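User: Predict the complex.
Assistant: Input components as received:
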Amino acid sequence: MAARLAQHGPDGGGAQPLISVRGLGIRFKTSHGVWQATRKLDFDIAPGERVGIVGESGCGKTITGLSILRLLPNNLAGLDGSIMFDGVDLASCSTRQMRDIRGRRIAMIFQEPMSALDPVFTVGHQIAETLRVHTGVSSEEARAKTLDMLRRVGIASPERRIDDYPHQLSGGMRQRVMIAAALICGPQLLIADEPTTALDVTVQAQILELLRELSETSGTALMLITHDLGVVAETCTRMITMYAGEVIEDAAVDDALVKPLHPYTSGLLRSLPHLSERRGKLASIPGRVPSIMDMPNGCRFKARCPYAVDACDAEQELRDAGGGRKVRCARFAELDLPGALQHATTAPIAAMVAQS
Amino acid sequence: MTADAHSIVSVRDLQVRFQTTDRRATVKAVDGVDFDVRRGETFGIIGESGSGKTTIGRALVFLLKPSAGAILHDGIDPLALPRKQFQNHRRDYQIIFQDPNAALNPRMTILSSVLEPLELAGQGTRAERLARAREAMDRVGLPQEIGERYPHQLSGGQKQRVVIARALTLRPKLIVCDEVVAALDMSIRGDVLNLFADLQRELGLTYVFITHDLAVVSHISERVAVMYLGRFVELGPTESVSERPLHPYTQALLSAEPRPLPSSMRGGERIVLEGEIPSPIDPPSGCRFRTRCRYAQDVCASRVPDWRELVPGHWVACHFADRPNFSPN
Ligand SMILES: Nc1ncnc2c1ncn2[C@@H]1O[C@H](COP(=O)(O)OP(=O)(O)OP(=O)(O)O)[C@@H](O)[C@H]1O
Ligand SMILES: Nc1ncnc2c1ncn2[C@@H]1O[C@H](COP(=O)(O)OP(=O)(O)O)[C@@H](O)[C@H]1O
Ligand code: SF4
Ligand code: SF4
Ligand SMILES: [Mg+2]
Ligand SMILES: [Mg+2]
């Protein structure tokens, strides 16, 4: 793990990052005035790397993904910071430059594939169009490439499916079609926002396997947005945890699971039913996320943190914690927080390990 | 299975059919299910979407009428009761759904929502009803001042607590919990699950806990049934089902569950099933799982597997579940 981090990690000094986000802030106009939905986001994704973005509802995962493609809703009040992608700042580049990158070099898929597919066109037409718009290939060639892509994403007898309309496909097949459409131009980065949340667990396993395999064989980097730590553990190499519009931890998945550095990450791991005694008390995080309208100046997790001290009232920066890790906590160096392993001897975990 | 004296619910050959909207076909949402729920236990039902879990839950509390088969509450058939008695009886069997927003009227204060079932039931004086509602809010850990608020002023976890308080005011014996934590954020899920466990201990409640989340079901239930396409394929003590699953579908389901573990502890090959759950309008002949089963033989297409008690208390419907080396473990 450490070796992989040294190559790909943000501070590893190895490969150039594919995308480098610095100081990203997203502000919206609302009837209550302007509100700051995310702020000071810093993270990198290396070529071919698979990064999970986790955090609970409303913490800013989706809008962070959308901001990379400049697809934010139109009540956007402003975007701060920079998003460097191959020498271009996506936060400030021209609409023409953005259009050339979106769909061709960076693609995105969403939770509900039905809303992203056009019901009046066949799936083959929709995939082939993307390819034709971006590369100008002939329609025969586009169709041949589409068939090939449908086969690669695991659609059985694609020649029979290519002329189907989206409503004729099952949920899992639609998500495969979305993935085919996203990957047809061979993007360098695929942003997947909760791509399996609407699917059943057996179909979810198929889609996650597919995403991992495609990223490994084609070198496409993956930014996987999810609230499910299991999905990240199965699919990604690095995990970025967000809380209340900020990145609070950034580490290799195994490191974050075994030894989380932020009390919130540790609390999340402890509250998972997988990791606690069957029918025993589950740990939970008391309280709730502070409202955007009423954010504390210091650590945003303080009101819920069992380790809070006065020093936490000072503004917290995302700090380098060594070993390619970053964390936003005043006390990370002195705390020794429990992760997933501490609970590994309990029955449910032992069973899961035995089954695999 | 015979009706057992400890059973608060006995279900015999339950069938629920729906007409499709164009009225051309019949959906066999539940197609011959047998089980007993013991007083004071948590009985889990897991399965993928469309397998019939919610339909069973609604039938258990008589929100819908079985097309065939019987559901006994405490050994009696509620449908045979006179109307008035049936209405009273139903209060003992409550159901809570996934989405607290759909269950709460946005224009009613929280206290009025909690009071509503008591008022509809016309029980006691106004003062007694208020006391009962406040007690229920107390039980679920809601401060009394929340009673004056409206649903949009509460968090998701608080709203789900309100819905639970509402169900508790009628002092039910059994609560069907249908995906009750699915809409909650992970950091508060634990809280709500703990609450269910505490209430069970304090009030002697029985739960039927319906979920597609294996980690949740195996944490909370004593026994669990696995449902596929309108039928149970396996039923047994939670430990046995999750540690020694007998049915190939259960094995695949357990192996597909994403595990939040470091790679050193995950290891091993996962069983990745092909395809998706077929339509309940025209389910496969014989064993319904055969189109996705890696062990399927000819007999699986021609004969419906018997529902057998292979190990005491552990039931399974698969022709080959008793073969050695059948399970991948
Ligand atoms: N158009 C908008 N106008 C105002 N606020 C918005 C808008 N879109 C999103 N927000 C707010 O920005 C914050 C982050 O939203 P986002 O959709 O990124 O959350 P998320 O982390 O993806 O959550 P979930 O897990 O529920 O999908 C939330 O507080 C949300 O209410
Ligand atoms: N009122 C209804 N009318 C028609 N079909 C229904 C109705 N309710 C459920 N069904 C169908 O019955 C099957 C089982 O549904 P349900 O019990 O909701 O499954 P689950 O809760 O396991 O997801 C599904 O195929 C569903 O579409
Ligand atoms: S800075 Fe303080 S309050 Fe915030 S997470 Fe760290 S210890 Fe807790
Ligand atoms: S009866 Fe046949 S098809 Fe069904 S689960 Fe058993 S082996 Fe598989
Ligand atoms: Mg989102
Ligand atoms: Mg349901």
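Chain A touches chain B through 58 residues (CB under 8 Å).
Let me know if you want any component modeled separately.
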